[in-house]
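Team,

Forwarding the record for the chain on the shared tracking sheet. I've put the sequence and predicted structure together so nobody has to dig through attachments.
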Amino acid sequence: MRQLGTKAWAWVLDYLYVAFWQLYGFFVRDPAGKLLRDVHPDAAPVLLIPGIYENWRFLRPVANRLHAAGHPVHVVAGLGYNRGTIPAMAALVENYLLEQDLGNVVLVAHSKGGLVGKSLMAGTTAAERVSAMVAINTPFSGSAYAKYAPTRAIRAFSPNDSLLLTLATNLEVNARITAIYSSFDPHIPGGGRLTGGTNIRLAAKGHFRVLGDPALLRAVTEAVAAGRP
């Protein structure tokens, strides 16, 4: 009973976190450009890919931590709230990498963003421009809850979705992916573990709230620093 109560409370805190950052992203129009200034010339460039129904500001705690460590942090404004298909979103990131002529980039992604990132790494002309990816609570194996979702965009995370199954068979890029995931994820009951990747399981609970967890921020910073050849 206590464990059930702990998980229920984790759900509540997770959605309170969502509410705060969704309101922040809607009302606070802080420019992303400053994340490209005052950086270390030898630090790997980072590109953020938020999850579904999230804009880049949802990853603000992660962005601030990486920028403070000296990394230039790039944002693809065209992703918006990441409501398009995975291939379409991957194409937007691909175009950005080509237009900005970026190389040795480390992707930092949350949830669906990790699937977008892997799709980019697995089969686009810009794949060679990405050295590594750090994926936070990404449903690489789908989510058993997805089939109950009212929208097609979320039902696409079903474990039986053809695109997810295709991505899962591509093991080549997994060695360049660090998967960081919560001990309990209300939205991904199977967890965010990735076969063949570097897996880091945090004590923190939640699908969203973990983005502000100090242990997560440390793990992401270390993984980004290790991800550049």
